[in-house]
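Quick note —
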Amino acid sequence: MARNGHISMKVLSGFAAILLTVVLLLLSVASAGLADEKSVQKPSTGSLKAYPMRFVVLGDRTGGHVPSIFGQIVQEVLRLRPDFVVNVGDMIEGYTEDEKVLEEQWAEFKTLLEPLTVPVYLVPGNHDITTDGMVAQYKARRRARLLIRRPRRSFCYARHGAV
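Predicted structure written out below.
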C-alpha cells in the first residue's frame, strides 16, 4: 500500500473512483431536494420523495489556498442552510511529516468549520493522508476528537444512503 512513506497511485485512483461514486450517488438521491427554500420539507413518513434533502459538497482548499476564501465559503454555506455538508478531501496543504505544521493546518481547518451546525461528513484526500505518518496523525486526531467530526465512508440521512 505504501512505498517510501507515500500511498501508491493505485490506492489513490481507487479512492478517487469511490469519491466520484459518492458524489454521483448524492446528486442523484438529492434531485428531489433541489426545490426552493419554502418547499423543502423535513423528514416525515412515506416514500423517498417525502424525504428531500439539500446538501453542500466542499473540497480541495489546497495548492496555495488564499486565506479567508474558505471562511467566506463557509458563511455562504450557512446562508444556504443545507441539511448536511460533505467535504471531499484536501482539507489541509499536508505533504509534510512536520507534526507542528500538521497540527497548525488541522487547527486552522477545524476553526473554519466550527460555524457549521449541520452534520459534516469528512472524506480525507491525498493532501490529508499522503504518508504513513500523516495517516497515523489523522487517525490519532479522530480518536482524540480533534477533528470536528469523524470521517465517513458511508452515511444515512432521512432514509437516503450514501456510500
